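Practice problem 4.
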């Protein structure tokens, strides 16, 4: 993933876990308005072209048990389609901190995300992944969220 050009998250940063030297890339999202990162995925040939869901893996350097709000939206592109087109409607999910610093947290899956375009198996999908610290469901005031990864789930045909 990488920061969007507009309303960008932080750039990916390589961090070390400490004593055991586990290294991971994270994308930091400050507590502010909606901040975006993007990713491109070539969907598999057995994808049914239907809705997808997103589950977020993240952590915070805080003992808070407050929640972060994550969102995901996307667009499917077939052969010879223009890139500059709108994303589909976003779906969001909130997930709470564990109260322990730097633990890997896993959100529930979002509701079904309908991708813009005419999705079919094997197409390229552009996803926008965001945190919106300005929404009421995001109660991690003043805390930066570190996104570790996103699992996209789809139905096979």
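Answer key:
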């Amino acid at each position: 993933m990488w920061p969007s050009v507009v309303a960008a998250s932080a750039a990916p940063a390589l961090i070390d876990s400490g004593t055991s030297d586990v290294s991971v890339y994270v994308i930091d999202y400050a507590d502010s308005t909606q901040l975006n990162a993007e990713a491109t995925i070539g969907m598999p040939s057995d994808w049914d072209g239907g809705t997808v869901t997103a589950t977020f893996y993240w952590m915070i350097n805080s003992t808070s048990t407050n929640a972060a709000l994550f969102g995901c939206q996307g667009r499917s592109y077939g052969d010879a389609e223009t890139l500059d087109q709108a994303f589909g409607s976003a779906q969001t999910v909130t997930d709470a901190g564990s109260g322990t610093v730097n633990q890997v947290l896993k959100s529930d899956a979002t509701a079904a995300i309908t991708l813009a375009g005419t999705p079919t198996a094997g197409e390229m999908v552009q996803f926008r992944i965001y945190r919106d610290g300005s929404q009421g469901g995001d109660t991690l005031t003043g805390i930066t969220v570190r996104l570790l990864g996103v699992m996209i789930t789809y139905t096979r045909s």
